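fyi for ur records
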Amino acid sequence: MASRPRTGSAARPEWPSLEPVRSTRIYEEIVRQIKALVADGKVKSGDRLPPERELTERFRVSRTSVREAMRALESTGLVEIRPGEGAFVRSVSVESLIEPLALVILAQREAIAELYEARRLLEPSIAALAARRASPEEVAELARIVDEQAREVSAGRTGFAQDAAFHTAIAHSSHNRAITRIVSTLMDLLAQSREESLQAPGRPQRSHQDHRRVLAAIEAGDPRRAQQAMEDHVIAVARLVTGRQGERVPRKRRRRPG
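which gave:
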């Protein structure tokens, strides 16, 4: 009677070659090599790592070192250890990439002027992208938000919630998850300063008018006009909040030799 093939042995793909480890902190070298394989695309999200015994043979290290390396990889979120199944490479989401950036910005909450400078650099280009990519349904949602903002302002309120929703919806219309996450983070971090700016006399009406201009450009599919309208809007808010940032900085002319 022919012997049965071992379960799962044929299904597992051939693993890339690994280097023998020569390091005083052995587990760190194991971590480095596995991270490099993932970064190079040789090992992909969802792939199962070889069993512990096989890794000890490939790396020529002890099982203790392999276990330490797996714990380190699990703590960074790169590897998921499933009891009874093994270690698997986790899928990397946009949120996990952007979250460290959000934490860094949170630690610098006092740098309001710099955050507005970031808005001035990012949001006009995002509006241009939305003018190219927004679907009819997304344009309709932008129009709904602006109409709702008009009702809020007419009732004597600031329209703060609609202001945030408008900028977030434009980012969503870019069809880029990283952009959506970054803009959402900026809106959250600047919430207090934005709300205070809308308390200024005439500011809610001006904000609504600016949003109308941006919306009209996106509806027309005009990236250049959308970019300019958004830049004007962000500069105006930045000037009001910081009193100095957001203005266009003239370029220094280089002196010609002579």
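The beta strands are 79-82, 86-89. thats all i got for now
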